[in-house]
């Protein structure tokens, strides 16, 4: 890639100056790369913003009982559909439940589903991708199965699987995971296939290193960077799909407050009481945005070739 | 060319077989579809009766082969609730969904490609950053959230468009499009983000090519360089992503139709899910997957239109 104004982001300027400044420290202030967490975050503002917002949401989910909430499932017909006020910050829904408490507790479902799906889909997809990339006779068969799964629009597949199981958080995780696995498997297989052509892998094979050792020592570490980025995007999309499933009534059971559920319940009244829909919507959007920003930041950091381009 | 098309068509057969197997098996994801259908109050006798009536008690291989045979003849089975053939139910609901998707497609491509081109042209400036911020928001704000915000602002507050509903094209273009414009923007959000990003990335690469410098040196105007010389050479990745992104439109349509009360396939699916009407769910999933595979096959075949060097 030839250098051009596009390829050299302004963010690298201080680094470039270091080499020039070194022999004459009295001319320019000593600009060392600031170390530690602060320096890392300053060099990667996307990760900083995304990480901060995500930590905030995790805090909300973990400490929901201590943030001025009441029982999110407590019914109270006497105080139905109150507008937001000092007493009910986000108002109450049509059954008199406190929307603020429900939204805060709802963060738990979203985060659990997002993280679980990202983790499980990554691990299973990694295993399938490694085996498929190394065991050639299995590859054709496994990849046709993956092609087939990827030919079903993922949201539709998750909806159908969720509909065919009893509504529970575990089944929602299962449904979304199945839809996400092929993407990880394909990614890992691609990395494995390109790594197999590398001289050091050839050398390892020639010296008689066993395949599991090659996978563990030479292949796996190289898949981690693209996989981490992919896992972040899977987490973001899983949180959206969970909300969609709950919203259309095929996801988290109504007894557990989740952002999709709250929106589904607010749907009938949204033209007169829009706040019931909008508060969970804002929280969901901010959380997904945080995870996406984290993913973009990780991608730029882990894959410098892609940095500042996509 | 003909041999290539034939080869590609044959290659889709194993893929469609896997799709069919997945669609068939997903009914058994819970173990016992009859129990799920019967509800929590059902006695074991009720469940056995339903199981037998719907044929779920026969050997699974036999069921799959018989089901596949009927599907290949165009028979997607009969709805458990309405007793209508699934194909009839799909035919009744297909028009609003196809309209919504086509309007979204045209709108998204029309907005996203120029966005990506301008972002690449002005790379590194605030225009580029603003466009990329819009893109990341498009990925992050779920389709139903965008839908409700648009409906609240432009339909309820400003009263520019109808809040909900659908008017067929046969009743005039203006009512048709005014009902579809808000759902199309909502549905197009992710799609626009996706296309704009890939357009920008590909254009950045193409704009560094020697022929772009040559064109600039001989005095070709900026607009012509961008939209004629560069965009044409960036077309293949963009068109590929437009095809892959159709999956997002299909999934998003289910939700968009719920938000805007559009009586299409999405509503059919949601109703079928709430009633656990498995033949309908299977039929819709199978049909959408088939359409998706065919669209992407056609896009692969269209590459030679954009790049005459590609021959089959």
CATH homolog superfamily of the largest domain in chain B: MetI-like
Helix/strand-derived class of chain A?
A: mainly alpha
Q: How much helix is in the residues of chain A?
A: 55-70%
Could you tell me how far the N terminus lies from the C terminus of chain B, measured between alpha carbons in angstroms? 5 Å
Strand and helix layout:
The complex is a heterodimer of chains A (310) and B (312).
Chain A: H1 13-21, H2 36-43, H3 45-62, H4 99-134, H5 136-151, H6 154-163, H7 169-196, H8 199-206, H9 211-247, H10 259-266, H11 275-302
Helix pairs in contact in A: 3-4, 3-11, 4-5, 4-7, 4-9, 4-11, 5-7, 6-7, 7-9, 9-10, 9-11, 10-11
Chain B: H1 2-25, H2 33-38, H3 44-53, H4 60-72, H5 86-121, H6 126-140, H7 143-157, H8 173-206, H9 210-217, H10 222-233, H11 235-244, H12 246-259, H13 265-275, H14 278-301, H15 303-306
Helix pairs in contact in B: 1-14, 5-6, 5-8, 5-12, 5-14, 6-8, 7-8, 7-12, 8-11, 8-12, 9-10, 11-14, 12-13, 13-14
């Amino acid at each position: 890639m030839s250098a051009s104004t596009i390829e050299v982001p302004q963010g690298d300027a201080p680094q470039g100056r270091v080499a020039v400044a070194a022999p004459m420290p009295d001319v320019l202030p000593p600009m060392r790369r600031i170390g530690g967490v602060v320096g890392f975050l300053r060099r990667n503002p996307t990760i900083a913003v995304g990480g901060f917002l995500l930590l905030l949401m995790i805090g909300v989910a973990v400490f929901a009982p201590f943030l001025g909430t009441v029982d999110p499932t407590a019914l109270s017909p006497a105080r139905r559909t109150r507008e937001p006020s000092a007493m009910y910050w986000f108002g109450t829904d049509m059954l008199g439940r406190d929307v603020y408490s429900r939204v805060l507790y709802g963060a738990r479902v979203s985060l659990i589903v997002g993280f679980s799906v990202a983790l499980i889909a990554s691990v299973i997809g990694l295993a399938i991708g490694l085996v498929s990339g190394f065991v050639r006779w299995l590859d054709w068969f496994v990849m046709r199965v993956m092609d087939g799964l990827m030919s079903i629009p993922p949201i539709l597949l998750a909806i159908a699987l969720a509909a065919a199981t009893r509504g529970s958080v575990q089944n929602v995780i299962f449904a979304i995971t199945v839809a996400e696995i092929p993407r990880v498997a394909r990614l890992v297989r691609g990395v494995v296939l390109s790594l197999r052509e590398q001289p050091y892998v050839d050398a390892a094979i020639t010296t008689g290193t066993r395949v599991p050792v090659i996978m563990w020592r030479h292949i796996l570490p190289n898949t981690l960077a693209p996989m981490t980025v992919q896992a972040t995007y899977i987490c973001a999309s899983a949180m959206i799909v969970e909300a969609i499933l709950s919203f259309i009534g095929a996801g988290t059971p109504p007894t557990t407050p989740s952002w999709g559920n709250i929106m589904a319940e607010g749907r009938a009244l949204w033209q007169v009481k829009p706040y019931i829909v909008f508060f969970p919507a804002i929280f969901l959007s901010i959380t997904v945005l945080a995870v996406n920003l984290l993913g973009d930041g990780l991608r730029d950091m882990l894959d410098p070739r892609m940095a500042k381009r996509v | 060319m003909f041999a290539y098309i034939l080869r590609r068509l044959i290659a889709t057969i194993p893929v469609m077989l896997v799709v069919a197997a997945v669609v068939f098996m997903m009914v058994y994801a819970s173990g016992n579809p009859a129990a799920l259908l019967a509800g929590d109050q059902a006695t074991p006798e009720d469940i056995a009766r339903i199981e037998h009536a719907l044929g779920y008690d026969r050997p699974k291989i036999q069921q799959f082969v018989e089901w596949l045979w009927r599907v290949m003849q165009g028979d997607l089975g009969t709805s458990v609730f309405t007793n209508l053939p699934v194909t009839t139910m799909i035919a009744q609901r297909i028009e609003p969904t196809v309209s919504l998707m086509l309007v979204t497609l045209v709108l998204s491509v029309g907005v996203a490609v120029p966005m990506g081109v301008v972002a690449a042209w002005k790379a590194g400036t605030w225009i580029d950053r603003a466009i990329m911020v819009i893109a990341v928001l498009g990925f992050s704000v779920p389709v139903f959230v965008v839908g409700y915000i648009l409906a609240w602002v432009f339909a309820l507050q400003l009263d520019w468009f109808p809040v909900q509903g659908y008017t067929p094209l046969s009743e005039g273009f203006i009512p048709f499009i005014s009902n579809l414009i808000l759902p199309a923007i909502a549905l197009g959000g992710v799609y626009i983000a996706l296309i704009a990003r890939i357009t920008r990335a590909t254009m950045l690469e193409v704009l560094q090519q020697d022929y772009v410098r040559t064109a600039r040196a001989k005095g070709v105007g900026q607009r012509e360089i961008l939209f004629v010389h560069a965009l044409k050479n960036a077309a293949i990745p963009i068109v590929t992503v437009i095809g892959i992104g159709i999956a997002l439109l299909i999934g998003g349509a289910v939700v968009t139709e719920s938000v805007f009360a559009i009586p299409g396939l999405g509503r059919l699916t949601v109703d079928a899910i709430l009633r656990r009407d498995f033949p309908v769910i299977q039929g819709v999933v199978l049909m959408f997957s088939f359409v998706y595979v065919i669209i992407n096959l056609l896009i692969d075949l269209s590459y030679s239109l954009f790049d005459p060097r590609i021959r089959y």
